[in-house]
Amino acid sequence: MTPIVELRGVHREFIKDRERVPVLQDINLEIEPDEVICLVGESGCGKTTTGKIIAGLLNPSSGEMLVDGRSLASRSGKEEKLLRRQLQIVHQDPFASLNPAHTIGDILSFPLRRHRMVKGSGGLQRRIWELLTMVDLTPPGDIVNKYPHQLSGGQRQRVSIARALTVQPRLIVADEAVSMVDVSIRISLLKMLQNLRRELGLTIVFITHDLALAKYFAWEGRIAVMYLGRIVEIGRTPDVIANPAHPYTRALLAAVPEADPELTRHKQAMRLRSDDIPKLTALPPGCAFHPRCPFYVPGTCDVNVPALTDAPGFAQEVACIPVQQGQAAQQIVEDDVDLNPVPAHGLD
Amino acid sequence: MIGFETVASPVGLVIGLICGIVPLAAGIHYRRLRAGIGGFLACTLSGFACGFLGGLPMIALTYAVVLSYAYVNREDPFTSRAALSEVTFEVTRAEQFQRTMANLGKSLRASWKALVRNKAGFLGFLGLAFFAALTIFGPSLIEYEGQAHIERREPGARALVAAPSVEHPLGLDWKGRDVLSHMVHGGQRLIITSVEAGVIATLIAVTLGSAAGLLGGVVDQILSTIANFILTIPAFPLLLVLAAVVDFDSDFMLAVLFAVLNWPTLMRAVRAQVLSLRERDYVEAAVALDLGLWHIISREVFPNMVSYIAINLIFTVRIAMYSIVGLVFLGLVPLREPDWAVMIFTGRQQGVLFLPQAAGMLLSPIVAIALFQLSLVLFSRSLEEIFNPRLRSGL
Questions:
Q1: Taking the CB of residue A340, how many other CB atoms lie within 10 A of it?
Q2: Smallest CA–CA distance from B305 into chain A, residue
Q3: What is the structure's pLDDT at A309?
Q4: Which of B80, B91, B286 comes nearest A122 by C-beta?
Q5: Do B289 and A85 touch (CB under 8 A)?
Q6: Quick one: CA dihedral A151, A153, A157, A158, positive or negative?
Q7: B93, closest residue in chain A (CA to CA)
Q8: Which of A52, A59, A115, A125 to mutate to test the interface with B (most CBs of B within 10 A)?
Q9: What is the CA radius of gyration of chain A?
Q10: Cβ contacts of B87 on chain A, cutoff 8 Å
């Protein structure tokens, strides 16, 4: 199947204070139709930039993005616009993503009218009601004439999703779409997204810093772990979660607290050599993770940039030279640190 | 101004009465008699004041308000709690039109509520309404005295100027003319010129500021440099020099000159606003939805600056009025009576400044100008509440 979006050797730089900040380096990613792919990583790792490039809001500094197997530049202007419109984004902050000056009905009507998605004012109203019903904002009559500030964070995020759906997209980038929403309604939002995905055949790029959410949402799809502008590990979610390959993924997974306190206490902690994240403007040579990596092999890791390829013993692809050479298997369980030791004599 | 020939004339009254029929009929039809009568009165008044210029827009506004009352209790599928399957969406043109008007009326009523809620702002609004009524209706009630009235000199008095009395409530000026008649006739030009100056300056500032903020790059640099350059020029002294050189045949030229010298402050503020607003997520979403540049300017960025621009417009009008009064006081623009500023000028020139009986003649224009300025400042306070839906929505 032709990937709906394919990033080929994408680099992206920003200029800040006359300094070049390489935010993305050599990103290769194929997004298949109907799949869920989750980009995980800490803040500053480039996951949002990747999302914006996919949504067509940023252009790569070098490398190219293919849509349906062809680059956008090779298409006619009209076709390019149509394709770009099919790639939508839902922002993180529900309080900033809706214009406070317009009612919800207006917000949804702008794209519908502009792209002639509906016929007549009756058709427009019907479509607005349909969209609001699709995102579980019912009864729609209660919502259409309200302003964004009259809605809760979760409701606004639903409106954002409905707005993205107005142009009948094939792919939606959900950029931390639930992280600013109250925990109690996250699950219902995620379920709604899953349902929409199944009903409409959407492809979803789910960006999050929360591995637990990624695990929940993308269980049927893939996870791509990013670190300092590169994808360090990518594979089917169950593979990555059950058998993480890259030391960074292992550290992330080890840090996820479990609901069971007993389990958390006896969880293997991943001891990193350093807790400091290097600056993007002064990236370490070789593998960017090597100053923190427990598998660090001097003379190799700090010289060669690892490629994202298969590794023995793993179903997923990983960018780590020691793992690819099968050297790092035993080193992980070096010491079983008690993360949360209970004092033997109780608390005085 | 178009339609101003009918100002406060019987023709205007007839126009107003005719216009008033529409909201009245709507009020009777929808059984909202009070709203209908209110609309009728508003239409009559504005038609009387400005002829068709005031009457026609007022028809639309009052009709919308009457409709919005009528729609409050009506079972409207679009605001009901019905589910999608229970609603039919096919509506006739007429129904669609009525719904739009009802929504307009609803936001008008919400704006009015916001205006009334802010005490200071409402006081300012009343002040402005007073001055509007004074300059529009006053002239047809009180006749203008242009000729000197030497016969009014008190026996034994050294000057014609006189303190307030029963038949001349604001006293007599240096030619023995009624000050009240000058007050009534002398405000229109000053107010209109100041408003023109403020509007032109704001238009320049908003256009250039948005261009600089949205386009950025070289355009931004050039425009900002020009703005900074003009900012370094002391505007009022330059205006003085120019006024001495340029012959101001029309008030409009004066307004334009003021605007040319006074747009940079607001332009920089607008530019800053645009720079901040264009980074918002909803603008990015509009880009992703391919809504077009014009939509982004007019529907995403501009509505969030309206209150800010309106407040600054008012402050520019204020400064313009002071500048014009200053120019007239220094005698640097052609003097035409009747004019509040000219009254102050002639008071000084004729040397009546130190006569106690000249208080009426001198203080009347000064107090009027000060009160007008105060009303502007107070009114600007409630603008934020009128334009910001977050503060407005009490309805």
A1: 10
A2: A101
A3: 87
A4: B91
A5: yes
A6: negative
A7: A121
A8: A125
A9: 22
A10: 129, 141
Q: Tell me which of B109, B283, B290, B386 to substitute to probe the interface with A (most A C-beta atoms closer than 10 Å).
A: B290
pLDDT of A346: 42
Q: Between the CA of residue B97 and those of A302, B17, B181, what are the distances in Å? A: 71, 24, 47
- Among the listed residues A162, A183, A222, the one whose alpha carbon sits nearest the alpha carbon of residue A31: A222
Q: Given this model, what pLDDT does residue A205 score?
A: 94
Summarised one tens digit per residue, pLDDT across range A136-166 is 988 888 888 888 999 998 999 999 999 999 9
Which chain A residue shows the shortest CA-CA distance from B307?
A101
- CATH of region A5-103+161-227: 3.40.50.300
In chain A, CATH 3.40.50.300 sits at: 5-103+161-227
Residues A263-277 have pLDDT tens digits of 777 766 677 888 888
Q: Where are the alpha helices (DSSP H) in A166-320?
A: 183-200, 211-217, 237-242, 247-255, 261-265
Phi, psi at B15, each rounded to 5°: -55, -45
What residue ranges of chain B have pLDDT lower than 70?
A: 1-7, 72-81, 393-395
Is it the case that residue A194 has pLDDT exceeding 80? Answer: yes
Q: Considering CB atoms only, which of A114, A123, A139 is closest to B81?
A: A139
Q: What value of ipTM does the predicted structure carry?
A: 0.84
Nearest CB to B285; choose among A97, A133, A147: A97
